[in-house]
Inverse folding.
């Protein structure tokens, strides 16, 4: 039985723009599938994608994409992946067919093949009827779809999507997410979706990688992300709840204020005993009236990871 | 069934990149301009001088009389492709100006204006491929209005001229024309690409190119300055002046400026090197704003 090649493998990756270090010791191993790259603005998501494309020389460490070393085989890597850039990048005066065909030729397709494939991909992304229109007349949603089409024309093994739902209205966004789901699940193309929108990642990906300040702070399957391995309790009541939170933090647990109480994320064990032990050590009076296990959403996990 | 379920399949073909990766850029750019009717019309107009000269060569050969300035000397071909022949449509210098401005101004500026560089550099294209591709677009049009008609005129003149020893006089014209047109295209094209990489507005780019290249009023101004200052070396200031100086040297015509043409060649090589440096500075796969 052959072992699947990781779509992305980095070891001790450092990246910088001049003196500013942007990626710190990033070591990740991603297997084929749909992976969400989450993080606030400036966390290093786009830099990581650019590094994977070989557009930035590695400052330190090693990175392979689809088994190819980025440092030595950047052109081969780019031949096998497709990028949907975050920002506007389409030149008016061309039609969607022209642009998509051109994109295919740049990767190495024959003109005839690229032209035929352009029509197919444009139909797939829902631009079939508008494929001969000038790009200057396209809406934001159509432009995003076209960016996807030009990235897919050569049938890449890996798609890098940088904020693909930027500026889209709700129906357009839903259609785009449906396309991404279909690409990764039914068409067998791996996807790395970089986004700061949690719902986009939750709806399309099976794994999530969280970046903060250029560091990987979390990496887990999405279904496991919904329920944390660390047990959380919501504590509500009267008295010195702030002091209780401080004692819990001093014990190494996380405690954040919530409406009328404290949410406690235990660093060990799965029972509420550490909370009761902490109550005994609070100098002021604490009256606990409500204590339940909390169901943490991916949003809370994400905020926890990046806070 | 959603349309994508019907329309999308994995592609079974193989990617066979062209040995020269910049070729698709050239091909796409050239086809884009050739598909415009007004550009085609200009291309046809640019060939009128060559046709007129061809007719003259024909009549010369029929009468057996070579008019002064006829196609008996290599200099005849240089006058046809003289870079400073801007006073009439009779020489191709004007058409070089027309096509460099028409084709070149937006080549890089447009990509930068619309952030299209990231589309190129997300494909297996290097910075050198990109620049060579863009230069190839300008070069194609310039060679179509200089080198190709010059070469065809030479072939036509060879067929028509029955004078003994004519071939011995002009056999090396294709070599000279090729070398000179290559130099012309490289310098004029790189200058335009450098300006296109620096500026974003077409009017600014075209105006600056005409000024630096030394066309029309700029050429007149340099000539005036040269006369007033009585300094021949002012001729080094314009690209077209240097090209004419080098071309005249190669084709055996008296150079227009009073200094050695090798100086002009050095100036042209320096200009080209400077342009390459500017282009490399301005064309980055990733633009970083710190």
């Amino acid at each position: 039985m052959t072992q699947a090649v990781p779509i992305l493998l980095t070891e001790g990756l450092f990246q910088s723009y001049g003196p500013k270090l942007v990626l710190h010791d990033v070591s990740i191993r991603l297997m084929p599938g749909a992976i969400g790259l989450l993080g606030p603005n400036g966390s290093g998501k786009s830099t990581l994608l650019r590094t994977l494309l070989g557009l930035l020389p590695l400052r330190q460490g090693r990175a392979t994409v689809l088994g190819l070393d980025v440092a030595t085989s950047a052109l081969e890597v780019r031949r096998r992946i497709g990028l949907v850039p975050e920002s506007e990048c389409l030149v008016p005066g061309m039609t969607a067919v022209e642009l998509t065909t051109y994109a295919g030729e740049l990767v190495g397709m024959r003109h005839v093949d690229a032209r035929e494939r352009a029509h197919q991909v444009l139909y797939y992304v829902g631009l079939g009827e508008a494929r001969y229109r000038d790009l200057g007349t396209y809406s934001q949603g159509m432009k995003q779809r076209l960016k996807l089409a030009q990235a897919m024309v050569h049938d890449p093994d890996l798609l890098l999507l940088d904020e693909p739902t930027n500026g889209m209205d709700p129906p357009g966004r839903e259609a785009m997410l449906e396309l991404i789901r279909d690409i990764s699940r039914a068409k067998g193309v791996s996807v790395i979706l970089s986004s700061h929108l949690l719902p986009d990642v939750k709806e399309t990906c099976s794994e999530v990688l969280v970046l903060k300040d250029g560091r990987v702070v979390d990496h887990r399957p999405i279904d496991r992300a919904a329920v944390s391995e660390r047990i959380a309790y919501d504590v509500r009541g009267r008295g010195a709840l702030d002091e209780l939170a401080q004692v819990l933090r001093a014990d190494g647990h996380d405690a954040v204020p919530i409406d009328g109480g404290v949410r406690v994320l235990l660093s060990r064990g799965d029972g509420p005993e550490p909370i009761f032990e902490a109550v005994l050590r609070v100098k002021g009076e604490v009256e606990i009236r409500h204590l339940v296990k909390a169901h943490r959403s991916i949003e809370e996990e994400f905020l926890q990871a990046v806070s | 069934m959603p349309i994508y379920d019907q329309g999308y399949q994995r592609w079974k073909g193989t990617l066979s990149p062209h040995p020269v990766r910049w070729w698709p850029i050239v091909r796409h750019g050239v086809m884009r301009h050739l598909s415009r009717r007004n550009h085609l019309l200009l291309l046809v107009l640019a060939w009128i001088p060559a046709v007129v000269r061809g007719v003259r060569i024909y009549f010369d050969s029929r009468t057996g009389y070579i008019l002064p300035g006829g196609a008996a000397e290599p200099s005849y071909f240089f006058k046809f492709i003289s870079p400073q022949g801007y006073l009439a449509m009779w020489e191709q210098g004007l058409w070089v100006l027309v096509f460099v401005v028409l084709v070149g101004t937006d080549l890089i500026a447009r990509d930068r204006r619309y952030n299209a560089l990231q589309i190129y550099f997300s494909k297996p294209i290097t910075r050198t491929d990109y620049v060579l591709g863009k230069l190839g677009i300008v070069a194609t049009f310039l060679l179509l209005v200089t080198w190709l008609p010059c070469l065809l005129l030479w072939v036509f003149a060879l067929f028509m001229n029955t004078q003994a020893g004519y071939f011995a006089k002009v056999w090396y014209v294709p070599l000279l024309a090729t070398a000179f047109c290559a130099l012309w295209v490289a310098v004029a094209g790189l200058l335009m690409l450098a300006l296109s990489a620096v500026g974003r507005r077409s009017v600014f780019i075209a105006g600056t190119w005409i000024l630096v290249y030394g066309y029309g009023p700029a050429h007149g101004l340099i000539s005036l300055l040269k006369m007033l200052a009585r300094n021949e070396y002012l001729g080094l200031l314009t690209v077209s002046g240097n090209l004419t100086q080098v071309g005249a040297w190669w084709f055996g015509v008296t150079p227009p400026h009073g200094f050695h043409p090798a100086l002009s060649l050095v100036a042209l090589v320096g200009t080209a090197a400077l342009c390459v440096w500017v282009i490399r500075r301005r064309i980055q796969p990733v633009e970083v704003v710190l």
Observations:
- Chain A has a mean pLDDT of 86.
- The CA atoms of residues 54 and 74 of chain A lie 5 Å apart.
- The first strand of chain A starts at residue 8 and ends at 17.
- The longest helix of chain A spans residues 170-185.
